[in-house]
Write a structure and sequence with these properties.
Distance between the termini: 54 Å
Strand content: under 5%
Order of helices and strands: HHHHHHHHHHHHHHHHH
CATH class: Mainly Alpha
CATH superfamily: MFS general substrate transporter like domains
Shape: globular
CATH topology: Growth Hormone, Chain: A
Helix content: over 70%
Largest sheet: none
Number of helices: 17
Length: about 425
């Protein structure tokens, strides 16, 4: 009889641990962008729409590159994708510290950093995690994506303190060095293996191949075309719903800190509210991943997360003090925790493991369009109205639409006529 206590740890859990920290440095370093909005505006006199366009370009470039990276993930070991992404992202941060004009900011922060971030993003690491698990996929991806919030919790207050005590340039330099060190070291140590079958293993560390076949949905061809994908109603529902949710999310991430400062809340406290949002998201990412493994359809876990985001926005609309701001951050943050894990979980549930990277890359194109529009539209509305109230109201309406669309998501593809 095999001694289970002596059995080696399934390598998929090392993939999960590395994914956690790679996502932490990637998203934490970019989601703290709101900390840099005021300092850039004060030094150069740029409007918030001008500055926000840099974050929007970053998201658009990130998502465009994710399509190609999704294809690469299905063919290339993730170690090389993450290593290249970390090096490019670090260069983007270091050069961002030297910008003197909007066009330089757009080219470096928007384009160069966007390319690097795609290599470090969820398409790369969550697709890799998703290939190593079936029964425990929701829990594994939930744990990995907790890194997004961990990075926000850790790096947002750090960036706020650096900007306050030194300057915004030093903040960008520190973020660049962290991205390089963590991204390269973890990818080379732990992300060497692309899928369990290539190394004589089975998903979840299973020993029964028949069980793996039984649990797996019908495979999607690894070279599925964009045209075929775009005609699939399940893809349409997921791409539109999550694209709009990310549009709301990014508008909040970029403008939450300046909104709080406009309300008379101190800079460090305002930056800390992003950390509180990340802390709540940390719990939400695990909870919704765990919950999805226990529901007959994971879409209900996603719907619950969208509902929490909606409730949080309603609180933000009336937040006028630090207490109200932090209450919003906890509610909205917990719900936003559903976004990162539920996207690959739903894709793997609907389309299978084999082409997960390619399909995830396709979807991320729409996520980036939404995420790119969010900060810029919010900044434009603020410049026109001098208030964020209309931004938050529009976001509430969008989230009502998104939550309803998620409930319509079908499990099987429609039969061809």
């Amino acid at each position: 009889m095999r001694n289970s206590s002596a059995a080696p740890v399934f390598w998929g859990w090392y993939i999960v641990a590395a994914a956690f920290f790679v996502l932490a440095i990637n998203y934490g370093s970019r989601y703290c962008f709101g900390v840099f909005v005021k300092p850039l505006a004060q030094e150069y006199g740029w409007s918030r729409s001008v500055i926000s366009l840099g974050a929007s370009l970053n998201m658009l470039v990130y998502s465009a590159c994710a399509v190609a990276i999704g294809r690469m993930v299905d063919r290339v070991a993730p170690r090389w994708i993450v290593t290249a992404g970390a090096a490019i992202a670090a260069l983007g941060f270091l050069l961002s510290a030297q910008v003197r004009s909007p066009w330089q900011f757009y080219l470096i922060y928007g384009v160069l950093l966007g390319v690097g971030s795609a290599g470090l993003g969820v398409v790369t690491v969550n697709s890799s995690v998703g290939k190593w698990f079936i029964r425990k996929r929701g829990t594994a991806i939930g744990i990995a994506t907790m890194g997004v919030s961990f990075g926000t919790i850790s790096l947002t207050p750090l960036a706020g303190l650096i900007v306050k005590n030194y300057d915004w340039r030093t903040g960008f330099v520190v973020l660049g060095l962290i991205s390089l060190l963590v991204g390269v070291s973890l990818s080379q140590l732990f992300l060497r293996k692309a899928r369990p079958e290539d190394h004589g293993l089975l998903p979840d560390g299973e020993v029964n191949p028949d069980l793996v076949v039984k649990l797996s949905p019908p495979p999607t061809p690894a070279r599925i075309g964009f045209g075929a994908m775009i005609r699939d109603r399940r893809f349409q529902t997921l791409a539109c719903s999550f694209g709009l949710a990310v549009m709301v999310l990014m508008s909040v991430f970029v403008h939450q800190v300046p909104f709080a400062i406009d309300q008379g809340i101190g800079e460090v406290t305002a930056a800390a509210s992003l950390g509180a949002l990340g802390l709540a998201g940390f719990a939400g990412q695990f909870f919704f991943g765990w919950l999805s493994d226990r529901l007959r359809d994971p879409k209900y876990a996603s719907f619950l997360g969208m509902s929490f985001m909606l409730a949080g926005l309603a609180v933000l609309l009336h937040a006028a003090s630090a207490r109200g701001l932090f209450f919003y951050a906890v509610v909205f943050g917990f719900g936003y925790g559903a976004l990162a894990p539920m996207m690959p979980i739903l894709l793997a549930d609907r389309f299978g493991r084999e082409a997960l990277g390619s399909i995830y890359g396709f979807v991320t194109l729409f996520l980036g369009i939404g995420g790119g529009l969010g900060p810029f539209l919010a900044g434009t509305i603020y410049d026109a109205w001098g208030s964020y109230a209309l931004v938050w109201k529009a976001n509430i309406l969008v989230m009502i639409l998104v939550a309803g669309c998620i409930l319509t998501l079908k499990r099987k593809a429609p039969h061809p006529r």
